[in-house]
Every structure is written in structure tokens, then in C-alpha cells.
Amino acid sequence: MPNVLGGLDGSATAQQLNAPWQPQPMRPSAEILAAADQACRKDIPFEAGLPLVLVDARGEGRLQLLYGAPTGESGECHGIFVGIDGSVTAGGAGASGTGGPWPPIAADGLAIMTSGGSGGALGQDEQHVAGRAGPAIERVQLTVAGIADPIEATMANGWWSAWWPGRAGCTRIDAFGADGTVLASVPGC
Fold first, then answer.
1. What is the distance between the alpha carbons of residues 66 and 95, in angstroms, rounded to a whole number?
2. How far does Cα 124 stand from its chain's mean position?
3. Fewest C-beta in 10 Å: which of 8, 34, 78, 93?
4. Alpha helix (H) ranges present in 4-87?
């Protein structure tokens, strides 16, 4: 499996993944990640063999998984839930699609590929947004109404993703280079 967690350190246990939501992403263990991948592929129909490109974990027992190929096929699961005991279940929220090849992205470019919200089968409201980032982008941060701290997106394989609880909307996305300079901004999302 490719590195779908970017440069995240450590390995979050099921108990840590069930802590309250936080604006910083977590790294699920390899066992939880494998079980989440299986649960998503069983729950949401998309092309067999489509590579997993990114996993976003922030607490509340919820994982977001993104799959994609440059040819335009995609899949996403917004409600993969990890129990305190390490069990992994699908919550039914997600999508799949096909489209044309991904357009080229500038080195300092930022693109939104998917966004939305769901209540999930277990009733937790959430909002999410994900996209692609050019190779000069080191970090992506989101500003969300009602959340004091910026949300640090998970980044891996040229993709970024973040989710947050509730129904509040994203008001800004900023992409930073290695030196901390803002390279791209998107008002709203």
C-alpha cells in the first residue's frame, strides 16, 4: 500500500482515534488502515484495484478514505468508523465516479476535487473537502467558521484532505510552501 498518510508520525490506537475531534490529523495503525480499506471497498462500489491515495483521521472514530487514478476514476468513503475495540465498520457515506484524466496542476497549484457533508449511518454530522496540490505545496490549512484553530489537512501522493464535525462551512483554504509562504489561496470551499 502506498504511503497514504504523508509525513504523519506515530501510530494512533483505536482509543486515540476515538478521542474528540482535533484540527491536526492522526496516523492510524497499519492494521486499522488495512481494515478501513477493506470496509470501504465493500461499502462503496468503485473500480477494482483503484489505488488508495489518502486517509484522513482526526478523532471521533471517523476515517475518510480517498481513492483515485490519473485517468479520472475515483472513490471516497466519508464514514469509516473505528470502534474503541479496534473494529472497523462502514457508515455508508461515500461516492465513486469516472471522468476524464486529471488536468495538470501547477507546482504551486491547489485544486478542490470533492467536498460535501454527511450525517452518516451513525448520525454524526461532518463536512469534508479534498483536492490536489502541486509539488511545491508542503502544507494546506483550512479556516472553518466556528472552529478557532486552522485545520491542518492530511497530505499524501499529491492530494490533501480534511474533515470537521458539524455543518459549518469552510471560509478559506491556504497552501504553503516549504518556507511558510502562502503559495495559493481559495476563498470558501
1. 10
2. 16
3. 34
4. 14-17, 30-43
